Amino acid sequence: MVSDEHKRVLDPERDAGALKALTHPLRIQLLGMLRQDGPATASELAVRTGESSASTSYHLRVLAKYAFVAEAAHRDGRERRWQAVHSVTSWSNKAMEDSPASRDFVSLSRRRQIEHLEASLVRYEADVAEGRLGQEWVEPSGITDLMPRLTPESLSELWEVIDRKLEELAARDAEDPRAERVVFVAAGLPLAPREPDAEPDAKPGRGEPGRDEPGTAGSGTEGGSGS
């Protein structure tokens, strides 16, 4: 669980401009990079994204207008450095259901999180193969896709348990030099039966073996009040 001071909670009515600003894919990418890798200049981000520095500079200014990023400490007086203001963007799923624009934002954000998971997997595999991560990270890393049968109350409770445990472990490891940034992406998406007579007692299935993949969600977003 991220403390309130490090979380930006968006309201679809009050923050309509901020929501619109985050629908641009490059802005989401830039915000995610600043959250994951720390402060950077527009030129540094341009190199990493393949965009021009004029483009990244413009989009950073838009993010700053809506208080997603702010100026960071400068290494010298030549170029402005930017940092993320919050580590997580969150919202209420129920509140976001009130308008097509806010529903579209949630859908876009979720798909961006999936893209971030794929990019993180590629980066993780390269980091292990090229020796940037030690072999001690191989065993606990992984992705799982369990399919339990849960009630809405149990799914909400699951999110709360995950949040509490993440907060506990992050606090415990905060000063440990062995700790690394871990991408933890979790999803709880109920699925209605395909057919009216679908087997109600079908056993939960699962995908490839492995452990839950620890994430900040690419742009550092929390998919609603519980995720």
What does this structure look like?
It is globular, with a radius of gyration of 19 Å. 44% of the residues lie in helices and 7% in strands. It starts with 6 loop residues before the first strand and ends in a 7-residue tail after the last helix. With 227 residues, it is mainly alpha-helical. The strands form two sheets. Strands 2-4-3 form a three-stranded antiparallel sheet. It has a two-stranded parallel ribbon with strand order 1-5.
Radius of gyration: 19 Å
| Relative helix content | 40-55%
Structural class: mainly alpha
Mean pLDDT: 85
First-residue to last-residue Cα separation: 9 Å
| Structural shape | globular
One letter per element, helices H and strands E, the order comes to EHHEHHEEEHHHH
- Poorly predicted parts: 200-227
Q: Please provide the count of β strands.
A: 5
How large is the count of helical segments? 8
Strand order of the largest sheet: 2-4-3
Strand content: 5-15%
Sheet having the most strands: 3 strands, antiparallel
